[in-house]
Amino acid sequence: MILLRVALLVCVLATSAFCAALARAQAPGSIDAAGCAFYAPAGADPRSIIASPPPPCTKALEKPEGRVSFVLFGGLSATARPGDPLEFSHRQARSDFERIYFRYADGVVLQSPTARDEAVRPMAPNDLYFAVPYRPVPLTEILVQATGFENRLGLAKRARLETRSTNLGYEAGHHLAYGLFGGAIIAMLAYNLLLWWALRYRFILFYCLVGLAMVMFGVFWSGLIRLAIPGLSVNQQIAGNFLSLSLIIAAVPLFLFAFVESNTIPRWLRRVTLAAASIAVIASLLRLLPGAAQRATIDLATYLGLLATMAMIVACVGFALANRSRAVRYFIIAWTIPLGFAAFRTLWGIGAIAADGPLMDVSPFAVMALEMVLSAMGIAARIRTIRDERDDAQAMRAMLQHLADTDPLTGLLNRRAFLEQAHDREGDQRLILIDIDRFKTVNDRFGHEAGDWVLVEIARLLRTNTPEAALVGRLGGEEFAILLPVDGSPDRLGETLILTIAYAPMPIRSKITASAGEASGSSLSEAEWRALYNSADAALYAAKADGRNCLRRDVASVAA
């Protein structure tokens, strides 16, 4: 619970850092985000285009063969300081090639020295930063040139022109937020891994897979992957984002199926859900292939696979609720926001929803960190429920075992339980068989209910007057048995018990006596027990023949 509280505190601090970064992001610097998008032949000179009036703008840019996509931002007036150069940034988009050109007030056109794959900065996700060559005159126009452009959201979206110091300050807020959110996610993942190592519940292991996929998503999304793979292209990083997101969505149903009670989600629905998740994962893997053909089809398959998987997860939750699952309520609390956010981003990715801004950059981490904290609480509650169910089952099993081993009238061991425990005793044992004298007369004279009272009272006397190490049982009818080790047990216990019964007040107006037979030997095997019992039984018959109300020992046992 301490770790959960720390994680919650980290989430609060990360949210504060994110708000600070968001406030900086709202500072002046955004330029016409729509720009003027148009096409030009592949051999067109960008410097001539930027110096001439642009052709009519188009709303959608695709990837037509033999043409190049352009976006022109005009009407600017920005002058850089020598020690704090300007930077042009915009949202990442998948394309084969990209160049940025700048036109100044004196008509000079210069190209950005920053290559596209060098424009990505770790911990500044989804944005490309291009250096603006310094000139002492104002910057008036920016031209973005892209070949092989593919993105439903548009080219050079969220375009900004800021000084380097402003961008670094903006990134610092992201760094703090990512560090805190990432720390919370990794801490909760470590917590769950240790929990699985200790408890070995399958649903904890599957949730660890979810956590690993989240860490993978964070590494790709934030750009940290570039520290490990410096030559990674922008397109490969985008494909990694999709793959990690698909792995998260694919691991969630595995966790759900193991987390809820068995038989609350139909098997056919589980198979359909996993099939939909497989489509998303396979399509995401295809995106990683260099030069993959039919990329638009692959994108559509990825998006549809993600949406179908999330729809199937909702259906699984509905079936679990209908089947009165208690555990699914914890899942709903932890996963409603993340699944809703994932659906929102998927619809945003296919252009069905219009949204943009810094919130779209940091919010995945905030949602994942919140989900992991809530899921940890749900997992703890589920473990507590399983523990309570296990304790109840063990108590029920112990009660049933007690009922199966106990004579219902006297509370002593019954014949079966007495024999089972007798076979587990090593070393020589002393067996005392006690039989109530003329018990049939008691039943005939006073009734069977009175006879039961007598049996209960004698059982109490035997239980309270024998050592703790002794087995005391009712073998049937009015016959009782006591088994205890020869070493350390009273030599005249049998005589003491006979006298105790003879002088004890009984629940009927009649004196009750008993006879006993005693023998010693091993009781481990069935043959040894049978020999020991026969010897004690023979001694009991001898006591009956000698007038009852006495104890006789087996001759062989006495000689030994």
UniProtKB/TrEMBL annotation:
SUPFAM superfamilies: Nucleotide cyclase. PROSITE patterns: GGDEF (PS50887). The lineage of its organism: Bacteria, Pseudomonadati, Pseudomonadota, Alphaproteobacteria, Sphingomonadales. It holds the Pfam family GGDEF. Its EC number is 2.7.7.65. It comes from Sphingomonas gilva. The chain crosses the membrane at residues 176-197, 204-229, 241-260, 272-289, 301-321, 328-350, 362-381. GO terms for molecular function: diguanylate cyclase activity. This is diguanylate cyclase. InterPro entries: 7TMR_DISM_rcpt_extracell_dom1, Diguanylate_Cyclase, GGDEF_dom, Nucleotide_cyclase, Rev_trsase/Diguanyl_cyclase. The keyword DNA repair does not apply. Residues 427-556 form the GGDEF domain. Keywords: Membrane, Signal, Transmembrane, Transmembrane helix. Residues 1-19 form the signal peptide. It comes from the Bacteria. It catalyses: 2 GTP = 3',3'-c-di-GMP + 2 diphosphate.
